[in-house]
Design goal:
Layout: E1 3-5, H1 6-22, H2 26-38, H3 42-61, E2 71-79, E3 83-85, H4 90-102, E4 114-115, E5 122-123, E6 131-137, E7 142-149, H5 151-154, E8 158-162, H6 168-175, E9 187-194, H7 197-207, H8 214-220, H9 225-238, E10 253-261, E11 268-275, E12 281-286, E13 313-316, H10 322-325, E14 333-342, H11 345-356, E15 369-371, H12 399-406, E16 410-413, H13 419-428, E17 431-434, H14 440-444, E18 447-454, E19 463-477, H15 484-504
Parallel strand pairs: 1-3, 2-6, 9-10, 13-14, 14-15, 15-16, 16-17
Antiparallel strand pairs: 2-7, 4-5, 7-12, 8-11, 9-11, 14-19, 17-19, 18-19
Length: about 500
């Protein structure tokens, strides 16, 4: 019988969430690097390079891989013979560990958890409460998995109650393209099959905690129905040509994970949860001997990829005109310098309210660009913490009014835009630029100063003004309404099909 002390458990949780904020699992890095070496689409290859370089920078500087440092998820498997030396509940102990991790003075993490989700949506300020899953198992140890899941990938979770005769493969292949690129591919798909609806979703989430091993499975061959399904989906999802960041390419998923459970004769629940390029989880055991000892990966394990931040067309944001952006085309690589405003969901809601009331805005948006970002707080000598883009489609409903009434010239965000936003961009001759999701620390290196200019009470959702120098972006929707996220995947789906035809000939 082992006794788990309160302090050891809390310290282990705190250390784990700090650890995963800046260390990718090495299996992910190895799989991404292998995909990078095979990639033939220059835009997708560049996106993967940014993610890999960002990962090494974060490991070296111990700063977050992504500005969205995630909602804290903890899986606990508690041995039936374990005793606890604590007056606190499991939830309270986990929350205290999360609280300490996210408020760590040397690596403060972004607090994204909001209370009263259907109402005031006030920030808890410390990323609590965590989401805790508990299973009682035989034994006298505690197995712990800590994961940080960002909103971009969580929001793409899908659940379907299929008929028993329906094809799971067909559902996945129909559903993945509807997820867009907001989940930051290349990543991992977790699929839960069977049980009940809530069981299927939980299995899909838990399956993502396993190491990437699709290459080993391909080498030895499948032995179960689930393994056959994994291989089939891995090949067919990648054949969709979605590619890194949705730009089109050979690799959309690095692995497909599946867990299943017996289900009702009339049912076939299927859930799909993606893990993004900021895959973050760590596993450890507690046996009563003290807190967990987490071993950092060797920096020698990270690939040395030379990344030239000077390639791309130089753009001065302070002198930019509509006439100049009219010459940009989807896929063009740009380096932004000058003043760049920020704003995401909460800020856009307030701007909309002021516009609806005919009130003046707190900041002049004429001929300006807005960057959809909620940065991490700075530490040490930083002007801002990691500051990668958030999913742009959440701002689509605001875009027509913003372009029509403010003189806004363009927007910078992550992934694709929807039809409403694209039509507004085309109508007003504006432009949408894409920054790489999963490269937040690398992006922050281009930000030379930062100050809050409006809505300071919103915290990370306030409007900042950044002074940027050579910030790398790609033209995603040009002033004519052409989107690289529509043309890229279609092009590469055809190319992959042609490659497969040659291989099978």
């Amino acid at each position: 019988m082992c006794v788990i002390r309160e302090g050891d458990f809390i310290d282990s949780i705190a250390d784990a969430f700090q650890f995963i904020s800046y260390y990718h699992p090495l299996d992910f890095i190895e799989a991404l690097y292998a995909a990078y070496q095979l990639e033939q689409n220059p835009a997708a290859k560049d996106a993967m390079a940014q993610i890999l370089v960002n990962s090494r920078l974060c490991a070296e500087g111990k700063r977050p891989i992504c500005q969205d440092t995630g909602i804290a998820v903890v899986f606990l498997k508690i041995g039936m013979q374990v005793r606890w030396d604590s007056a606190m509940s499991l939830q309270a102990m986990v929350d205290e560990g999360v609280r300490r991790a996210y408020n760590h003075p040397d690596n403060r993490l972004r607090a994204s958890v909001l209370h009263d989700p259907a109402g005031a949506r006030t920030n808890s300020q410390d990323n609590t409460p965590a989401v805790v899953h508990v299973e009682m198992v035989p034994g006298d140890q505690v197995e712990v998995i800590c994961a940080a899941k960002g909103g971009g990938s969580e929001n793409k979770t899908k659940l379907a109650m299929l008929n028993p005769s329906d094809s799971i493969v067909d559902w996945v292949l129909k559903t993945v393209p509807t997820m867009g690129a907001g989940w930051c591919p290349p990543g991992i798909l977790g699929i839960g099959i069977g049980g009940t609806p809530e069981k299927a979703v939980l299995m899909a989430k838990e399956s993502l905690m396993a190491p990437i091993d699709i290459h080993k499975l391909r080498a030895r061959g499948p032995q179960t129905t689930a393994e056959k399904l994994r291989l089939e989906l891995y090949e067919k999802v990648n054949a969709l040509g979605i590619g890194a960041q949705g730009l089109g390419g050979l690799t959309t998923v690095l692995d497909v994970k599946i867990m299943d459970y017996p289900t009702h004769a009339a049912s076939l629940p299927v859930a799909m949860v993606p893990n993004c390029a900021a895959t973050r989880h760590v596993h450890f055991h507690l046996d009563g001997s003290g807190p967990a000892k987490l071993t950092p990966p060797s920096l020698a394990s990270f690939p040395q990829i030379p990344y030239d931040t000077s390639h791309g067309r130089q753009v001065n944001l302070d002198q930019l005109t509509s006439a100049e952006i009219a010459h940009w085309r989807p896929g063009d690589e740009l380096l932004l310098s000058g003043r760049l405003l920020t704003g995401r969901d909460a800020a856009h809601q307030r701007l909309k309210a002021l516009l609806d009331q005919g009130q003046p805005l707190p900041v002049d948006l004429h001929n300006r660009f807005i960057y959809y970002v909620g940065p991490v707080d700075p530490v040490r000598d930083e002007v801002v913490g990691p500051a990668g883009p958030t999913t742009a489609t959440r701002m689509d409903k605001f875009t027509p009014q913003m372009l029509a009434q403010t003189g806004l010239l363009g927007m910078v965000g992550k992934a694709e835009r929807g039809p409403v936003a694209i039509e507004a961009i085309k109508h007003h001759g504006a432009v949408y630029l894409m920054a790489v999701g999963g490269a937040a620390y690398l992006v922050s290196k281009a930000i030379k100063s930062a100050r809050v200019v409006a809505f300071e009470d919103l915290g990370m959702e306030a409007i900042y003004e950044f002074e940027v120098q050579d910030m790398p972006v790609t033209v995603a929707v040009d002033s004519r309404g052409e989107s690289v996220h529509e043309t890229g995947p279609k092009t590469w789906q055809l190319k992959i099909a042609a490659m497969q035809s040659l291989e099978n000939a």
